[in-house]
Specification:
The protein is an alpha+beta fold and 177 residues long. 21% of the residues lie in helices and 37% in strands. β5 and β6 form a beta hairpin.
Length: 177
Amino acid sequence: MIINLYDIISVAGKQQQVDVNIDGLQGDFGGEMLKIFTKEPFTLTLNHADKDTLIVKGDVSLDVTRICSRCLEEIQCEYNLSISRTVDTAKNVDYTDDPSEADEISYIEDCNLDVDRLVLDELYTVIPMNVICKDDCLGICKVCGTNLNKSSCNCDQTVPDPRMAVFSDIFNQFKEV
């Protein structure tokens, strides 16, 4: 969703509340495609605090579809975000060498606020790299790929002693002869 900021930044001290709903937003997080939804619309408060400062605030609860790091099944995760950003409207954010200003480039362009990009930026700061579906998740079989939470397999799960690897290589060479 794009919000035009022209009316807000044209009048100092002006405050506006905008109802926002996010349905079907997708984002790439370290190679994992996230599907993001809100249960209900949330309110963003846009406040032109002084001459060159815009304050964006809001609280949102997001449902995010993630992949379990052990068994690779889809799971639903809920994240509560508290958005609070202060934007300097006087700075030209088209190109900058300052890394602190680079964050604003991603969600503000001209006089438009990209709410989807803003929410993704906030989400990326709180989301863990790996999630598991349950504490006792067994994962997948290393040999055949069976989800061990749903069924078991008859694969050899023994882990050989790495100190014996040399002897294993010798035996494997004699089997070929």
